[in-house]
């Protein structure tokens, strides 16, 4: 189960979250949208830079 995940309906492919993610958990998929590898991380910085609030963190 992913703790930090991407809401694909909100992602616009701007890469802001991927560029700031030092853990390399987030990446761009073949459709040009952000995606998250399996993780147990709270990538709050990535969530904060997303202009569409597509980066989600499960509580």
TrEMBL record:
<feature type="domain" description="4Fe-4S ferredoxin-type">
    <location>
        <begin position="2"/>
        <end position="31"/>
    </location>
</feature>
<protein>
    <recommendedName>
        <fullName>4Fe-4S ferredoxin-type domain-containing protein</fullName>
    </recommendedName>
</protein>
<dbReference type="InterPro" id="IPR017896">
    <property type="entry name" value="4Fe4S_Fe-S-bd"/>
</dbReference>
<dbReference type="Pfam" id="PF13459">
    <property type="entry name" value="Fer4_15"/>
</dbReference>
């Amino acid at each position: 189960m992913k703790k930090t995940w991407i809401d694909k309906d909100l992602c616009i492919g701007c890469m802001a979250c991927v560029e700031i993610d030092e853990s390399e958990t987030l990446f761009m998929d073949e459709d040009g949208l952000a995606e998250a590898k399996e993780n147990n991380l709270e990538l709050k910085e990535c969530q904060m830079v997303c202009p569409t609030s597509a980066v989600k963190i499960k509580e």
